Amino acid sequence: MKKIVVINGHPSPDSFGAALAQAYCQGATASGAAVREIHIGQLQFTPNLAHGYQQRLPLEPDLLAAWETLQWADHQVWVHPVWWGGLPALTKGFIDRVFLPGLAFRYRPGSRWWDKLLRGKSARIITTLDQPGWYYRLRYGRPSVNQLRRATLKFCGVSPVGVTYIGAVRGSTEEQRAAWLRQVERAGGQLK
Q1: On the chain, which terminus has fewer CB atoms closer than 10 Å, C or N?
Q2: Distances 68 to 64, 83, 92, 133 between C-alpha atoms, Å
Q3: Is the dihedral of CA 9, 15, 18, 20 positive or negative?
Q4: What distance in Å separates the CA atoms of residue 62 and residue 95, rounded to the nearest whole number?
């Protein structure tokens, strides 16, 4: 049985991103997958690395539970909006606090190389935009996707990492939003 974690990176529980995360969960559950959810906006934690990596803050109970869920899952689904070209601040803080050296990756002593401790896992990024996905890629170089896909997930060994762009959300009709919800539910049903 495929084990999937859906990570909702939108701080608001009433967002379209939350609806997309729920649609993916419905499709995955209907296909027989075991599904757990992480709603970053509902977690109690300090998102700031107050001392950088020189002094580690103890993980709060919500982050310990989230890390256990990330380890449990075979497949991660990250749902988030693009704000100012990047991830929401709370989502970035979650990554900073959880994807730590010694947990998600390990630097090799005396080397510039590292061990990828999340090998064997895959992921999908579902990102909402106020522009078409092709425009975000061509005009801006998709910085949020590069950060999450290449500089975080693949750095830690998660591969492959697929991407689904949902946009332009701003100005979209109810019919278009319903079509996107069906698209994401189908993706969950196909476990991708």
Answers
A1: N
A2: 6, 28, 19, 32
A3: negative
A4: 13
How far apart (Å, rounded) are the C-alpha atoms in residues 54 and 22?
Answer: 38
Walking along the chain (192 residues) 10 residues at a time, the average pLDDT comes out as 97 96 98 98 94 89 98 98 96 97 96 97 97 93 96 98 96 97 96 65
The answer to whether 1 and 74 have CB atoms below 8 angstroms apart is no
Q: Which two tokens stand for residue 54?
A: 């020189």
Q: Which amino acid is at 55?
A: Q
Q: Which residues of 37-62 are buried (b: 16+ CB within 10 A; e: fewer)?
A: bbbbbebebeeeeeeeeeeeeebeee
Helix (H, G, I), strand (E, B) or coil at 88: coil
Instruction: Please give the model's pTM, rounded to 2 decimal places.
Output: 0.96
Sorted by sequence, the CB contacts under 8 Å of residue 186 that are 6+ apart come out as 27
Q: Where are the alpha helices (DSSP H) in the chain?
A: 16-30, 61-72, 89-98, 133-135, 143-145, 174-189
* Tokens representing residue 91 in the block: 């989502």
CA distances to 26, 107, 114 from 111, in Å: 44, 7, 8
